[in-house]
Every structure is written in C-alpha cells, then in structure tokens.
Amino acid sequence: MSARVVDTLPEGEDWSYEVKLDGYRALVIKTIGKNEARIQIRSRTGKDLTRAYPGVAAVALKVAAAQAVIDGELVAIDASGRPSFQALQHRGAHPQHAIVFYAFDLLHLDGADLTGMPLDERREALARVVQGSKMLLSTELPGSAQQVIEAVAGLGLEGVIAKRRTSRYTSGDRHSAWLKLKLDKQQELVIGGYRPGPHGIDALLVGYYEGGALRFAGKVRAGFTPHVRREVAARLAGLDTSRCPFVDLPHTKASRWGAGVTAEQMTEMRWVRPAAVAQIRFVEWTTEGHLRHAAFLGLRTDKDARGITRET
C-alpha cells in the first residue's frame, strides 16, 4: 500500500501520524519449514533482499509468531537514531550506521489475513508480535498535524505520513487513506543519460514518465563523491543506447538554472535505456518544469522506472 503525496496534512481524530522514513520499503516474511523458521525480505518490486540484510533477518526470526508478513522500511541510522538514505546506499563507506527494519503494518499472522482489518487493529497486533524481538516499531506521533510537522521538521527528518485509522490495507496504486507530506523536497527520478567526467559521471540527466513518455527534469551534478561517481557509472554500464530517451530534448536554449540541454550540448551526452532510478533532493520545480539545485542521494533498486511520475 502506497501513500499519496499532499501539500497539507488532514486533521481530525480519524487520522494518525508517523515519521516518513528515508529508506527502502520492504516486506519481512516469516514462515515455518519442516525443521526451522525461515525469513525472507522482499523489496517493493519482489526482489529478494534477505542475504543483503542478514542482521534484519536475524532479528525477524525472534518475532512472536510462527508465520507473519510485516510491512516496513529498511533504514540506516546513526548513533542518535537519525536515518540516512546515502548511508543505506553505501554501507561500506558508513560503518558507523546500523541497518534496521522499522515495522509499521502487519498483513498476515499465523495463517490469518489481516488486510481487511482496520489499521488500528493491525497496529495492536503488530505491537504484540514485535515486542521483545528488537525489531523497531514505527509508532504514532502525538499532537495535532501542525505540532507533528514542527517536531519532525525540527529534527531534520524527511516528512510525515498520515493514515486513516479505519483504513484496510489495499495494495497497488497510491491510496487516499495513506497520505505523505514531504518537508524535504525529494523524489525518485529515472536516469536517461549522463555527461561523462573524470570518474565516469559528471552529471546525470533525469526525468519522469507522463502519459507513457519520459520527460526531462534536469541535470544533477551535486551529491557525488569520486567513489559514488564510479559506482553509478558501473550501474549504468550495459544500458548504453544511441537514442535519447527524453521526448522533450533538445531545448532551444539552456534554462536560467542550467537545467536545459541544447542541441549542441546533446553531443556531449551519453544516453542510457531508462531502467535505473535515482533518489534526488532539490529546492523546487522551476516554471520551465525543471529541478533547481538538484543533488544525488542514491540509486533506488526497489523502484520500477516505468512507475516514476512527477510527485510535486
């Protein structure tokens, strides 16, 4: 179940609020085999992440259930508990960060399907299941919508999720019963090309789908280290194509913020099949529909490029 992006949070006793966690959405699945319990960690796209997160799998074995499907977020946190998407992406470069799983919903429990139950009841069951397991629980934030926003913003966190207490769990499209307010402007965007540089990548060219067509959003040069530039170049290797995938390039002139790509600049670019997704932070969308002051946060292996649309 996905949350719909909004500009304001709903008010009222029907709604609860949680921190929007900056990580990878995943399902933790516990089953019982012939001789022992088995854990699987599955990404949003169905990729098996179990071997990549052995610590999370070990904690999940201790949940108080023979069988369970738990929805939540894989997050890298520092000693103060602050999440970092970049640390999750580049775990080897951030050994001081711990990889944890924040549980926020329980979909199945010991053979029973809970998705038709109200959220509050699923949360009560989830709290009982994770108690004593050392799995972290995403808890409800107290206060009004404005108080929650101020508290989350004061901690420098990404945003707030509002959930209707009576909502059933509905997989698929973004649902109006779950809403997200982003305090730090960022979203996933599709990589359609890049400008080569000394470490493989000088700037990424990113965009989003609209009506089945990939539209250009901007050039991204900030947020890289030499190591990350090489890592991204390696990820894009093998996706080369001679054709520009953006339907609205080239531009007749470069934009005020340097986001445009002219016909002359097109010759400097390398194009790739739009299969890789990047997490991008930015200040705002310009009137031309481009990103201003964009910075690279990391690659998203849990997102399908064809499902990326403009969120804000």
Short description:
This protein has 312 residues and is of the alpha+beta class. Helices cover 16% and strands 36% of the residues. Strands 11, 12, 13, 14, 15, 16 and 19 form a 7-stranded antiparallel β-sheet that branches. Strands 3, 4, 5, 6, 7 and 8 form a 6-stranded mixed β-sheet that branches.
Task: Describe the structure in your own words.
With 312 residues, the protein is an alpha+beta fold. It folds into 3 domains: 1-21 and 138-184, Dna Ligase, domain 1 (2-Layer Sandwich), CATH 3.30.1490.70; 23-137, D-amino Acid Aminotransferase, Chain A, domain 1, CATH 3.30.470.30; 186-307, Beta Barrel (OB fold (Dihydrolipoamide Acetyltransferase, E2P)), CATH 2.40.50. Helix content is 16%, strand content 36%. The strands form 4 sheets. Strands 11, 12, 13, 14, 15, 16 and 19 form a 7-stranded antiparallel β-sheet that branches. Strands 3, 4, 5, 6, 7 and 8 form a 6-stranded mixed β-sheet that branches. Strands 1-10-9-2 form a 4-stranded mixed β-sheet. β12 (203-210) and β13 (213-220) form a beta hairpin. The protein is globular.
CATH fold-level name of the largest domain: OB fold (Dihydrolipoamide Acetyltransferase, E2P)
Major sheet size, sense and barrel closure: 7 strands, antiparallel
Number of strands: 19
What portion of residues is helical? 10-25%
Shape, principal axes of CA atoms: globular
N to C succession of SSEs? EEEEHEHEEHEHEEEEEHEHEEEEE
Helix/strand-derived category reads alpha+beta
- List unreliable stretches of 5+ residues: none
Mean pLDDT: 91
Tell me what portion of residues adopts beta-strand conformation: 35-45%
Q: Helix count, per DSSP?
A: 6
Give the full name of the CATH homologous superfamily of the largest domain: Nucleic acid-binding proteins
Number of domains: 3
Distance between the termini: 20 Å
| CATH class categorisation of the largest domain | Mainly Beta
Q: Give the CATH architecture of the largest domain.
A: Beta Barrel
Radius of gyration: 21 Å
